[in-house]
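User: Fold this; tokens only.

Assistant: Input:
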Amino acid sequence: MRGRIDRGGRLWAVALGAGLAGFAGSVQAAPRFFASRQSPVVRLQIAAKPVHAALIDFALQAELSLGGDLEACNGQSPALAGRLSVTVALDRLLAGSGCGYGQPDPHTVIIRRLAAPPRPAKSAPAVAPLGLGEVVITAQRYPNLPGRTPYAISVVSGGALEREAVTSLYDLTGQVAGMTVTNLGPGRDKVLLRGLSDGAFTGQAQSMVALYLDDVPITYNAPDPDLRLADVERVEIMRGPQGTLYGGGTLGGVIRIATRKADLDRYQASILAGVGWTKGGDRSDELEAMANLPIVHGRLALRAVIYRDQQGGYISNRALGLKHANGSERAGVRASLRAALAPGWTATLGLTNQSINNNDTQYGLRRLGPKVRDTVVREPHENDFDHLSLTLAGEGDWGRTTGSVSRLSHHFGSRYDATSVSTLYGLAGAPAAFDEDKGTDLTVAEVTYATPGEHRLHGLVGAFASTGSIRLSASLHALPAGSPAAYAERRRDTIRETALYGEATFDATPRLSATAGLRWFDFRFDTDSTITQSAGQRRTIQSADAAGFSSKILISYDARPGLLFYAQTAEGYRPGGFNTAGRIGQIFDAAGTPPSRYKADELWNYELGVKLRAFDDRLQGRAAVFYATWESVQSDQYLVDGAAYTANIGNGDNRGVEAEAAFRVSERLDLRAAALLNDPEVTKLNLAFSTRKYASLPGVARASASLGFDYHRDLANGPTLRLQGQASYVGGSYLTFDADTSHEMGEYLGLRGVASLTTPGWTLAATLDNPLNSRANSFSFGNPFLITRDQIITPPRPRTLTVRLTARF
């Protein structure tokens, strides 16, 4: 393994001092009703288009939530360009449309049909509406509101992430229906959606869920890089196969992290500091700083965020005499340089760098207790992520186009205690370690064009190309370090993919629409592997090519304003590959042995959904009934000696229902709920793979649900008091396809509470996680060599109190 990387800490110290020097300003509290009080100024670039479409563009560019009767607004809006106040912009967009607007909170605009001509300017101000707004999404390659989009999409705004102290995708699992994140540790987790799981392990198979940072992919077959959700505008979660728009590796869906864009006009800065105390563990701390610097006002700006956080350990190792062994550190920086090239055109250069260092894994052994183990080798992990992208975007009366090129370098390495299998490798039971280092280097280019949405026939077309390599270096050796390897593999996979895709939507009537999508892809992969042991070498050189189509059909019907029905069928796919790991003499393609080549798998999803807005947008909800059929399910597995391989375990399916809802009880209290009930199972067995017919897909629960509340009120002396709570239930599941009860996990309740005081200039917040100090088993995996030899249990982090102070300048 590479040595411990501490450049993140040095980078943080240098950039914090330089980036915040000279930054000053003031934050003005946004008014509660724009029509009657001064409003903030934003830079807009909106082409002339129907009013409802222009309002969505406005909300996206002004970073506001939008709700109400958009479809009731008539006519065309004029083009808007330059810096305008929110009130002036809305007045111009809505002039002559028959609509007005109000604001229930500083970040939400609610559109209302005018029942009568507007009151004179000197009349008493109208009462602000209580409706819930929606955050604009771009997951479908064009802006829209999730409640009006005929897809199973959830979105969490940047404001919600900040208020609820959410810093990673793992923290989102209690808020989003059907989202599962394995609890292996920072930078090691696997993300699953809607009960679709190919297993709990991460190996050669392409990921089930594609992760995107803005408009570019950031994973292939790696675990979640666990990027800190700092200075993020929103997180979009799109469920079900997305093969048409996003290609392979999206059988479960797509998660997009949309970062905040550089502001071309305003100086901004913020700094966050926090400290946490874990029961029976070490202290945690975090620092985060953001700065926005207009270099040429209105033309060029730089925005950067830098952070460093440390999580205190709470797992003890009895054999090594270690307490709190699993501490971790994450450090990173993200910067974007944004330029306005011409009216309607922008270019953005983005850079992301992050490193994670875990001192040890975070599992215990059931025979010793959930927070204790007795392995004789420490099991550290490191994860280094570097990403560079350039995006060009333009919009006009002719439509919208986006082009991007990116370079990804993602390297991660782990050490595992392999003493339990050392005799199989000729080490006579001596303490042994297995070191695995993996790196993905990928260059991706993509361009899309979307036609204007006001025509009855509209859509988009795109082209995609990627090339790169995946390198693996693995060795098993006795300790101390430097001992000759008893087993080693050096592997390199070269991947190249090209694709053309498109979607077309025809509005048959003002209420009824049909969408068809198709993607053609060509995927080539080459594998070169060398296994080395004292008995000799085994080299494998293989190549393959896969080409085909992925399709989608969607019908949507607006029964009435605020009530949308849709029906969809969509396809997802993943290419196959080759198995090379295993000791000299390993047999392939025989009963009970790994295949030398695993096939592509394919998933079809059939879905009926409904979206509802009622009580003047105070209630928003969605529900979907789905059925997925999955052929030749790929799954990463381990042999008895710990060698990894991928197999097609057979066919599977999943059927279920999911629902999400939010309700504004009053101007002070919001409620939300989410639930998933599903029945994932293996329906047809691959006889060469050990599983049980009708066993559930591993790692996902048949039932999960969450409830949350948000109470907020302005205190007499100025600050806003906010109290938030969340309860989430995760049902039982199994680690493996054979549903072995020794690997049972789940069946636990997660609790979280946040209390905060906020002014325009600062926020003081306290977060309490796991207040009942639950020791439930969230994940039955931590070491591939112990799967059949011991019972692993991974508890949630013990009761933790965190206090954070954020200052804005």
